[in-house]
Amino acid sequence: MRIIRDYQFVRPEDRGATAAIGNFDGVHVGHQAVIDIARNAAPDAPLGIVTFEPHPREFFAKDAPPFRLMNAEAKANRLEKLGVERLYQLNFNTSLSGLTAEEFARDVIAKGLGLTHVVVGADFCFGKGRGGNVTMLQEFGEKYGFGVTVADLVTQDTAQVSSTNIRAALAEGRTRDAAEMLSHWHRIEGEVIQGDQRGRELGYPTANMSIDGLHPPKFGVYAVLVDVLTGPHQGSYHGAASIGVRPMFGVNRPNCESFLFDFKGDLYGETLSVALVDYLRGEEKFDSLEALITQMDADCDRARSILAAL
Description:
Residues 181-308 form the Riboflavin kinase domain. Belongs to the ribF family. This protein is of the alpha/beta class. It has 10 helices and 14 strands. The chain is 31% helix and 26% strand.
């Protein structure tokens, strides 16, 4: 998969794609339905995705609470697994946000990226002030020479599948409900960073990852599947992770600490993908380190049982 970040500098071989347009936060089943429609709209054309970094919501509301389900790297990894060949990850800045709906259709879709067909959700809005809708996009497509397909919203039971509903499920610790809407486990991906090394002292060395900028799942302990994506220890492991502020040790910045079962090695600087399978319990402040270790032993035993049954 190739990543193109500037619509004004697109190589000839990266033009002519059929692309789904949207933010695709989480790459849930609704997003996947839109991608499949794009795939089938022109089977002989490269399959593309047009998305934006930073997320427009981050751009316009810089002080808003973190809401993203995925960082840019995790999203790219998931899209590549779905067979996307061209990721047009456009820099969302003052210039791009100031384009009118028609300017976006003409200058970005048609002239810039050279797309032959685009697929959008029924609620798609675009252009300055979200002034464009799917009807306008279809009209601009006829004018500037690209096809437009509008995909219906995907529902599951009676609830609409959406990033908002997935965030709500994760905030309540309902990991399997989130996974059903995603069609994959919700994952936290990132680089392993230096921690306080308390876990090693307790007999539970952990791989620490920042969750800055991400919608925080319910704080507590989870049974997890961990993929080590880089370095000499690449592979898949079972484990238990704690997400939160570690109340046993004062006031701390929220993070994700994963203990990989039956693993020995150095993971500092490597990239991990941590899948949240089941929520085990909330964060607690114990009366002693011995009580904490006893609970960690029980957490790991329970996580092993859960993951063995997958």
